Amino acid sequence: MSSRSDITVKPIPTDAPSAPTEPDNRPRAKFDLRPYFGSSDLRYVQYLFSSTYLNLVPAGVRLRVMSPFVMGLWLAIFAIMLVAVPQFAGNLGWPIQLRLGLQIAVVVSSLGGGLLAFFWYVDKWIVTERVLQGLENDLKDPAAYYRGQNNDLKGNFWVFTINNEPVACIGIDQHLEPVMDRRATAYVRASARPRLADAPEIATAEWKGVAHILATVDDYIRLVLVGLVDLVLDGVEAVRGKKPAKQPILFEAHKPNEASVRRLAVKTEYQGHGLSTALLKRVAFWAHAHQIDYLYAETDELQTHMAQVLEKRHGYQKVSHIKLGPFQSKTVWKLDVKLWMSKELEARQKEQEEEKIRKEEEELKEYE
């Protein structure tokens, strides 16, 4: 089921000077909220998800920089370098002009280099990891994950298009069993890792002897480093007691009357225009039609705007707030679908009554 509408042209104010009217031949934008089509939409959906998430990197940097602990540590390192580096240069006999230039370089590198380091860390180890987690799990094949087979409905997935270009997406997930993270791989001990010296590329190299020696050295270095890690892990397991390795759970299981909102993403240049409202309403209507009583949604520490949209515009209630690290957290939201539906119907009825009154007033003006 899809919904379409056209952009309306803003009317000219009545107090504006009259001008010759000309037909407006400009093409109107076409809106369409439709189900996910499959392979033709896949790259658009993956791009929407990854690009909107990567745009949250500055928020992650800001969150860390504003921490009193990080700010204090940063200033302490800066103060030490500002004093120690010029003093060391003075001991080497550098002239005062060079030491002044060195102090300026320390200031620039401490500020600029520190920010670059934060951006690199948040982008590489926080945001990119979450993006890859989505792309290699449910968004690897949204149709298979969210819809399943015809007799095994697991949810649905939609895209919002403008002039046939997907600019937003959303999914509803109703898996009744825990969904495991496919990215998680079992740890491989040093003795079980394949040897680079045995690789076929080494046997076919132009300089076989040199290639074999370098590969052997690399194997021994990796064997020593990974072996040390194995020893540490063995020691920890010996003290704590060995526990069976568990594959991490990506999404928890739902009850038959529950579902979750997943992968809400709106293209950056279209954010702030109400597209998320249309998408979240589509999910709520679908949930009501499929006898789902409660909808859940999850936001992390970077998705503060999405959290406000869920709570203030759509009535989601905060269920829990889980700390996952010094700066990482997850918030779970819950929506009573029946209550939301009753409020939505009341709002629509009120709009219809107001529209009816407005038309009656316009008709009365014609007889004045």
TrEMBL record:
Recorded GO MF terms: N-acetyltransferase activity
Entry-linked SUPFAM superfamilies: Acyl-CoA N-acyltransferases (Nat)
Entry keyword set: Membrane, Transferase, Transmembrane, Transmembrane helix
Transmembrane segments: 69-89, 101-122
Database matches in PROSITE patterns: GNAT
Span of domain N-acetyltransferase: 186-346
Region (Disordered): 1-27, 347-368
CDD domains linked to this entry: NAT_SF
Transmembrane helix among keywords: yes
Official protein name in the record: N-acetyltransferase domain-containing protein
Species assigned in the record: Apophysomyces ossiformis
